[in-house]
Write a structure and sequence with these properties.
The complex is a heterodimer of chains A (284) and B (297).
Chain A (H helix, E strand, L loop, with lengths): L1 H6 L12 H28 L2 H10 L1 H34 L5 H7 L2 H4 L2 H12 L6 H6 L8 H26 L2 H9 L4 H9 L4 H17 L2 H7 L9 H10 L3 H33 L3
Helix pairs in contact in A: 2-15, 3-15, 4-9, 4-12, 7-9, 7-13, 9-12, 9-13, 10-11, 12-15, 14-15
Chain B lengths: L2 H7 L15 H31 L3 H6 L4 H34 L5 H9 L6 H12 L6 H6 L8 H12 L2 H13 L2 H8 L4 H30 L2 H7 L9 H11 L3 H30 L10
Helix pairs in contact in B: 2-14, 4-8, 4-9, 4-11, 6-8, 6-12, 8-11, 8-12, 9-11, 10-11, 11-14, 13-14
The chains are: A mainly alpha (284), B mainly alpha (297).
């Protein structure tokens, strides 16, 4: 008995603090009731279809079109977020100018503003008689109620992710390596592209993945501005909704499982990027 | 050495233009300009649009929008859901952070991953899981129907879906904060003879209060503004299970005067977002050191 007890590592390291059993027990109970059991119900519902059945649903023309629209536009929006996110993060951490702190605080607006409000405002702005939409209309471009509208909403939603993942990394960059680079005769452009930007790559990729994952699942802001035309501007979450209204629960569950699988793949990618970054540079 | 000599030996001030660790002035101005235009177009203009449209038909029309009993029901529905969901996630957040941050146990990283899980689930999927579980065709459907318990298309479903999407906010704010604070304060309190409950109220809670407030603010903003998950479980009963974000959609799709009313309701939620942002920013400026370091979303 005594031997086996010393050989087996205990489940929890002994501590003088009370309440471990109570708090862990409550955490597990609450987690199971709110998150794990409901998600299990989803897996259970789609398990009846089998992998083949789920793939068959993914191949249905309307589903395949929605997957293409969702992932294609999310990818494009996340790319735009990377370009502008790098510029905004760079400006906010490295330059001093009036209103910098105010703008820094405003970057979080897409996190704080309810998606329905964002969708409502964007669809009215980009409608062909809206403030911004009228200029596009003059050039013969319709933005609201087309896939371009989805793109606008997803750029808004994903805006803070790249900025917020980059800022701490940019702030920690050492001045000395820039000075060394300049002393060794590099032009400023060479210093930026060869010395400063490479260590930012993992953070940029993480920000991209976070913005992309958020965009793929986004519903509220998109449905206001998308027009939701099947095969053209219908996103996957909207299709799940439609299947539910038609009482096709198994189909809805199957599409949801496909989305879950893809978001797990994205999460896994983020973790791999961060592990790779830790190995390479010794920081996150 | 005379004072004059010291004056002469003082180094001339460094002019930023010659600084090798920054860009030339016009590059800096261009980058700042691009950032400002981008953020103006994507953040400021939509926000202004909400208030412009809400007040576009005059202040009287703005306030008349709130006379509508359905709008009032939607507002009280949103408040009710937040009043239930936020405290539940608050209690959970403290319990989870206590277990995870103050103890070492097997499977800890798995547990923190699971706590973050709701953030990576699409809101519509979050609503769907509850429909599958409690809906008429679900495993619990017949039992609930027999006992006339309404969960889906009723208040409990909306509350459950809201709890799901706001689940990690408080916990993920407190876990890194309590990990950096360590256990010494609590151990000292116990050694000095405090009861566990006294230790919790007089040591732990004061230590984490700003982080707690921060987490609750974000949790509340999301709870009141959630659209997708709530939309799936609510059944859109006007004057019944409609929350404010859902009511915005119904008013907007109704057309006509509805658009002004939609923007009026939206302006309330936009004000909530602004208050949240301001409070969050003040907390970060004043208590930045006490708050958790990693504010990733």
């Amino acid at each position: 008995m005594a031997v086996s007890a010393t050989l087996r590592a205990p489940f929890v390291k002994s501590s003088a603090l009370p309440g471990f059993g109570l708090t862990l027990g409550y955490t597990l109970l609450y987690l199971s009731l709110i998150v794990l059991i409901p998600l299990a119900a989803l897996l259970d519902k789609s398990a009846g279809l089998g992998v083949g059945g789920i793939l068959a649903i993914a191949m249905e023309p309307q589903v395949a079109a929605a997957l293409r629209v969702t992932f294609g536009i999310s990818f494009a929006a996340a790319l735009v977020n990377v370009v502008f996110g790098v510029i905004v993060a760079w400006v906010l951490t490295r330059y001093e100018f009036p209103g910098r702190r105010l703008i820094d605080a405003a970057v979080d607006l897409p996190f704080a503003l309810p998606t329905a409000v964002a969708g409502l405002a964007l669809s009215s702005l980009y409608a062909s008689n809206g403030w911004i939409g009228q200029f596009f209309a003059m050039a013969g471009i319709k933005v609201a109620f087309t896939p371009k509208g989805i793109f606008v909403a997803l750029v808004f939603i994903g805006l803070p992710f790249v900025v917020r993942t980059l800022q701490p990394v940019l702030a920690e960059l050492d001045d000395e390596i820039e000075e060394a680079s300049a002393t060794l005769g590099a032009t400023r452009l060479q210093t930026v592209t060869r010395v400063l930007l490479p260590p930012l790559l993992p953070a940029v990729l993480t920000g991209f993945a976070l913005a992309f994952a958020r965009a793929v699942g986004e519903y509220g802001s998109v449905i206001f501005i998308a027009g939701n035309i099947p095969y053209v501007s219908e996103i996957v979450p909207s299709l799940i909704f439609q299947k539910l209204e038609q009482n096709k629960y198994a189909d809805a569950a199957a599409i949801a499982v496909i989305m879950l699988a893809i978001s797990f793949a994205v999460l896994l990618t983020i973790n791999l990027i961060q592990a790779w970054s830790r190995r390479r540079t010794g920081n996150v | 050495m005379s004072e004059l000599a010291i004056e002469l030996y003082r180094e001339p001030p460094v002019r930023r233009e010659h600084n090798v660790t920054t860009e030339t002035r016009w590059v800096r101005r261009t980058l700042i300009g691009i950032s400002l235009v981008f953020l103006l177009a994507f953040l400021v203009v939509p926000l202004v649009e909400v208030f412009y449209e809400a007040f576009g038909a005059g202040i009287a029309a703005y306030f008349a929008s709130f006379e509508d009993p359905d709008t009032r029901t939607a507002i009280s529905m949103t408040l009710l859901v937040a009043v239930i969901a936020v405290p539940l996630n608050l209690v959970f957040g403290i319990a989870a952070a206590w277990a995870v941050a103050k103890f070492d146990f097997k499977g800890k990283s798995l547990l923190t991953t699971l706590i973050d899980l709701p953030f990576s689930v699409s809101p519509v999927v979050a609503g769907l899981v509850f429909v599958l579980l409690f809906g008429a065709q679900g495993p619990l459907g017949p039992f609930l129907a027999e006992h006339r318990i309404h969960i889906i298309f009723a208040v409990p479903g909306i509350v459950l879906a809201t709890i799901f999407v706001t689940f990690p906010f408080v916990a993920r704010e407190l876990i890194p904060l309590m990990e950096t604070q360590g256990k010494a304060d609590e151990e000292a309190a116990l050694t000095l003879g405090a009861s566990p409950l006294k230790m919790f109220w007089t040591v732990t809670i004061p230590n984490i209060r700003w982080g707690l407030l921060y987490g609750v603010l974000l949790c509340n903003a999301r709870a009141m503004g959630e659209f997708g998950a709530v939309s799936v479980v609510s059944g859109h009963v006007i004057g019944g299970t409609n929350t404010m974000p859902l009511h915005i959609q119904i008013l907007y799709e109704g057309g006509g005067d509805g658009a002004t009313a939609a923007f009026a309701v939206a302006s309330l939620l936009a004000m909530l977002a602004l208050v949240t942002l301001v409070a969050k920013t003040i907390l970060e400026w004043r208590y930045g050191d006490e708050l958790a370091r990693s504010h990733k979303h």
